[in-house]
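QUALITY CONTROL LOG
STEP: pairwise intake check
CHECKER ROLE: data steward
CRITERIA: each record must contain a sequence immediately followed by its structure tokens, with no blank fields

ENTRY 1 OF 2
RESULT FIELD BELOW
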Amino acid sequence: MEISKNRRQKTGGRPSSQVADL
């Protein structure tokens, strides 16, 4: 999903599964 890609870039490339919705 595009949302996952956006979150991964914000977290620095980490899986959105481990990173909460910041």
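ENTRY 2 OF 2
RESULT FIELD BELOW
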Amino acid sequence: MVNGIAPREAVERLKRFKEEFEVRSRKQEIYYLGEDLFGLPHQQYPKLEKTKQELGYLAQLYDLYVLVLETIKEWKDYLWTEVPQHIEDMRSQIEVFSNRCKKMPKQLREWPAYHELKKEIEDFSEALPLLVELAKPSIMPRHWQQVQELTGKELPVDSEMFMLQSLIDANLQEHIDEVTDICDSADKQLIIEKRLADITKQWSEEAFLFGSWKSRDYDCVLSGGRVAEIQEMLEEALMQLNTMNAMRHSLPFKEPLQNMITSLSEAGDIIERWVKVQMLWTSLESVFTGGDIAKQMPMEAKKFIRSIRIGSRSCLSRLRHALVVPCCQNDLLQQLLPVLGQAWRAARRV
């Protein structure tokens, strides 16, 4: 055995020596049979026996060396889209390789082939968890851009021909902490994105309920129970949105988050004013539509009745069964509530 030979050259030499050994071993068997045939004592070939032992010894290292290199080369040829379905197989196989490498005889651990073999296994073992992370659905183009900038390698993941080889060549294992942080951030961003989508969907469907008031045969007042429910849901949604907006992982969603916060905050303000205006109206109506005050102050009573018609028929009744957010964004409603509120507060002071 000659130490210090380059691993790939050693593999070629070992292959040739095995072939030569097989030739000599077959000759030995033929000689052995001939010696038996003629009753001759068996000739001993100590060098051949020693060569057999050495070849078997070296085969432990170089057979594994070749197997590992060929297997990893096969993995590198996978299309990136195929990698997720092979992850578990790669994980279990690389563990087998690692265990076999650790059990290698002590004498062989000084050979260059052993060091190269060990490095191949360790590099892939370190890269594998990162491949698992990068294959998750939370990884978006913006995250790949971050990985490209980190490694300085072009990673055209959108290409149908993008292969695992490109990621391995990017030496991900040299940036374990940074890549892990990118993937963790992607997971948190996906949670934010999904929750924002849920809240957006919810408030594209939530609607007011309206009911009639006294003798009116049409819906003209907000349903108190439903309003309280909506206000509670708005408070909960705004708390979640503000919490997400404060997270460092929310940067890609800042604009939609802030837009949603603004829309729901404004809706909450409008509902609060609307409820107050409605309470003014319902409390004053009996005062100005009947009894002594209506007779004593006919002009004020007429103004109040006119404002009721504007408020209940002209605007509020048109919004019945309306969706909460679009309804609160209605220009007519936003303009009318302050006017009605001011008029009815003035009427209350009369």
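INTAKE CHECK: passed for both entries
DESCRIPTIVE NOTE, ENTRY 2: The first helix runs from residue 7 to 37.
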